[in-house]
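Side project, low priority. Logging it here so it doesn't get lost.
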Amino acid sequence: MAVHLSGGVWSPSCANFALRRTAEDNADVFDGKTVTIVMENFYADDCLKAVDNQEEAVTLVKSLTKLLSLGGFRLTKWISNSRKVVESIPLDERAKRVKDLDLDRSPLPIERALGVHWNTDTDVLGIKIKPKEKSYTRRGLLSIVSSVYDPLGLVCPFVLQAILSR
């Protein structure tokens, strides 16, 4: 099969399979770290990864782009909390809010990934919740807890603590 139609309920699963298969098929050509990132740090269509320094991030962007291009993937919407890393990324592959940004003067934007807000300028993660007044029944409390989209489990302990302290 050379073409896959997008938009079906199966599309994310097929894309994820193709992404992982590309990494597996080229594991002998690329370093293990790049392959591991593809296998462990992609969530839906977002790659979330933190590294120790800017040079490592620039190298990682290049190696991920090169590896996944072998499977027909074109990585776009790149963003970083480092201006040096953003400058190393081609303009047409940067996130929309960073393309027209004056990297010398303007603050970096707030981006969203998997329900989490990331202030790239201050490198702080946050979450926005619209509190709802519900009754303190099992159904009401379950509705409040379930309304918080937190697939990474970052705020779940705090949400539960807030509900228990009410």
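Brief comment: Residues 148 and 155 are 9 Å apart (CA to CA).
Revisit when time allows.
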